[in-house]
Amino acid sequence: SVGKGVSNGSYKGHRLFTCPEACALFLPISHVRLRHWSRSGNSDAHERGPASPPPFHAGQRVCFPMEDTVYSGEVLFCGPLPGRSSSGMYVGVLLDAPVGNWDGYYKGEKLCHVPSLTFGLLLPVNKVSSGKSASLLCYYVSTHLIQSECSCRFERIRTLQYVTSCSVWLPAFAEWGSERVEEHTPPMDGDEARELYQGWKRGIQGHLNSCYLDATLFSLFSCCSSADWVLFWPSDPETDQNAAQAQDLLRCEIVNPLRRFGYVCASKTMALRRLLEAANSDTGFTNQEKDPEEFLNKLFQLLRVEPLLKIRSTTQQPQECHLYQLFPPTLPPVASVQALLESSFLHAGLKFVEAPSCLLLLMPRFGKDFKMFDAILPSLSLDITDLLDDTLRQCSICQAVAEFECLQCYEDPDITPGRLKQYCHTCNTQVHSHRKRASHSPVNIGVPGGPWSGPLHCTRQRMSLFAVTCIETSHYVSFIKHGPLPTDWLFFDSMADREGGENGFNVPRVKACPEVGRYLSLSEEELSRVDSASLRESVRRLLCDSYMCLYHSPELSLYK
């Protein structure tokens, strides 16, 4: 109507279209309805006509915007609400992610069966769109998601409340959705894993500072099954609904789809972040920078799983934890993870109570910004035999059963360099009879099962490197070992590119990086002679920016 508007098609000096003065009005698209007109001019003619069928049917896939994310689900109910037929149609949705608040009832009347309150949502029909529709377009105006149905073209949409200096139109966030997979899906390896993951829109999509979570989950689950026990840890939905929901979300919405399709959208990880936020009363999990250590500790606490590590000090009871922070007393410019772990344990007087199936080691650094090393060599194989408590150990010199361990000898390059120093009774006496070592204080380590004579032939307890998480300028990425060959390495970045600029969304990428394999086979001495300026970007990031190294023992994980 002429004169009922507030504009001539301009907003804050920007001409969007042309019309007479006071004939334009800017509204959120959710406030716009299609008006049905009758040719007879009778406004009630349409009301008396046959009722339109519901626009959605039970079982149909749909999606809808909520806050800064597009969520999807399955229609359970579509129709008018009891006693409110004049309010129009409503849709009851069984959500893929636990972000709902509806139990399937309306004013005491059951409309449909919703298995869990947090997986149900009741919405006006105009808020819902058919899932995976090619006509669904999503727009970001400032930080708010707006949805528009358009079958043939892009539209420029603004809202009166959230207008910015420029408008951006984007392909739908829903078009970047990922499916739920109920069936347990083991990880692929070798060429199959590379073919599954390599490329753009691969891995886990990043969103709102989620790289700490994306890199950690991709490291843990993409090509390795040693942490899969957390996906099946017993939980009771009746007594611990949050743990059951988080486990179901992690298994069916993130890990299984990642392994089957090679991609998981940001709405799935956002749902997990919301659960973590709710469980910890921490408002930062959905939008602020975190680190993998905090994320894993909070996740494992939410899932109520058994700690990964049991570590004993010489003077204390065993302590349980999920990760171990390396704290060596001294740090050369270049060191291997093997040397850092041995030095940390030896100087702190620590031992593993039992061999872990999965070992997550945090590299020495002060916070996210300051690292304490020039380069760290992620040892491909980690020997923890001599770090185990209450187990037989070999003498460093004659391979008989060791009875003593010497901290001062550890720094001595003349005796088995690069290894822990432990001796049988005879070798301990001989070594410490030298005047250079007369002041040493070897410690008795005991022999399980009593006295033992003769040489000891034992299998070394080794763990294999399967991933490295790195950080540079507060951004986390990961390197994944995807097969048995030295060149079987992948690089993952959940925010490798961006569509739509500042108000757009991230595009994840996985690429092969076989070049890192050659450097991982070097010794510490060889690596120290390499000029870091000559390194390729991927190699430099792996060796110089490591944050966490992930090791596993496939044999032991079978018993977890």
TrEMBL record:
<dbReference type="GO" id="GO:0016579">
    <property type="term" value="P:protein deubiquitination"/>
</dbReference>
<keyword id="KW-0597">Phosphoprotein</keyword>
<feature type="domain" description="CAP-Gly">
    <location>
        <begin position="81"/>
        <end position="124"/>
    </location>
</feature>
<keyword id="KW-0862">Zinc</keyword>
<dbReference type="Pfam" id="PF00443">
    <property type="entry name" value="UCH"/>
</dbReference>
<dbReference type="InterPro" id="IPR038765">
    <property type="entry name" value="Papain-like_cys_pep_sf"/>
</dbReference>
<feature type="domain" description="USP">
    <location>
        <begin position="202"/>
        <end position="522"/>
    </location>
</feature>
<dbReference type="InterPro" id="IPR036859">
    <property type="entry name" value="CAP-Gly_dom_sf"/>
</dbReference>
<comment type="similarity">
    <text>Belongs to the peptidase C19 family.</text>
</comment>
<keyword id="KW-0378">Hydrolase</keyword>
<dbReference type="InterPro" id="IPR000938">
    <property type="entry name" value="CAP-Gly_domain"/>
</dbReference>
<dbReference type="GO" id="GO:0046872">
    <property type="term" value="F:metal ion binding"/>
</dbReference>
<keyword id="KW-0833">Ubl conjugation pathway</keyword>
<dbReference type="GO" id="GO:0005813">
    <property type="term" value="C:centrosome"/>
</dbReference>
<keyword id="KW-0963">Cytoplasm</keyword>
<dbReference type="InterPro" id="IPR028889">
    <property type="entry name" value="USP"/>
</dbReference>
<dbReference type="GO" id="GO:0004843">
    <property type="term" value="F:cysteine-type deubiquitinase activity"/>
</dbReference>
<dbReference type="InterPro" id="IPR001394">
    <property type="entry name" value="Peptidase_C19_UCH"/>
</dbReference>
<keyword id="KW-0788">Thiol protease</keyword>
<protein>
    <recommendedName>
        <fullName>ubiquitinyl hydrolase 1</fullName>
        <ecNumber>3.4.19.12</ecNumber>
    </recommendedName>
</protein>
<dbReference type="GO" id="GO:0006508">
    <property type="term" value="P:proteolysis"/>
</dbReference>
<keyword id="KW-0645">Protease</keyword>
<keyword id="KW-0479">Metal-binding</keyword>
<dbReference type="Pfam" id="PF01302">
    <property type="entry name" value="CAP_GLY"/>
</dbReference>
<dbReference type="GO" id="GO:0048471">
    <property type="term" value="C:perinuclear region of cytoplasm"/>
</dbReference>
